[in-house]
Write a structure and sequence with these properties.
With 155 residues, the chain is an alpha+beta fold. The chain has five helices and eight strands, in the order βαβαβαβββαββα. The protein is 29% helix and 25% strand. Strands 7-6-1-3-2-8 form a six-stranded mixed beta sheet, covered by helices on one side. Strands 4-5 form a two-stranded antiparallel sheet. The N and C termini lie far apart (32 Å).
Length: 155
């Protein structure tokens, strides 16, 4: 198994988009990239901790490649919006790829270059590509939030 971590706006919808992909064995929502140890949702939403709402994924690379996960990542959000997604505004909603290996970093940067050259988006991609930091799992009520409510989208 390998792991991946992405920030693409509100983590509820992001988790739902990845949770059911063949080859994904586990997902958790949480916070990463900040400077406060073990932040709470309220702290992250205060925009003072520096954290991103993220999805942590464990996947089988024999079934689904990291590149396919990136394809899904870029399909489910607007990577040209720096610190917002839809109605959600703040640094915690930034678009980010947190890589766990030099290979993941290379694949992510190449994917961004390809997408920027393709003209798929009207503006340049603002996605940060950063080494994975500590993953702090969000409170239990956030885990599989949409699934628990019989929904598959946030907005």
């Amino acid at each position: 198994m390998e792991k991946a971590m992405f920030g693409a706006g509100c983590f509820w919808g992001v988790e739902e988009a990845f949770r059911t992909l063949e080859g994904v064995s586990d997902t958790k929502v949480g916070y990463s990239g900040g400077h406060t140890e073990n932040p709470t949702y309220e702290q992250v939403c205060s925009d003072t901790t520096g954290h991103t709402e993220v999805i942590y994924i464990e996947f089988d690379p024999k079934v689904i490649s990291y590149e396919k996960l990136l394809d899904k990542f870029f399909d489910i959000h607007d990577p040209t919006q720096k610190n917002r997604q839809g109605p959600d505004v703040g640094k915690q909603y930034r678009t980010a790829v947190y890589f766990y290996s030099p290979e993941q970093e290379k694949i992510a940067k190449e994917k961004i270059q390809q997408l920027d050259k393709s003209g798929k988006f009207r503006a340049p991609i603002a996605t940060e590509v950063t080494a994975a930091d500590t993953f702090n799992a969000a409170e239990e009520y956030h885990q599989r939030y949409l699934q628990k409510r019989g929904a598959n989208v946030c907005h």
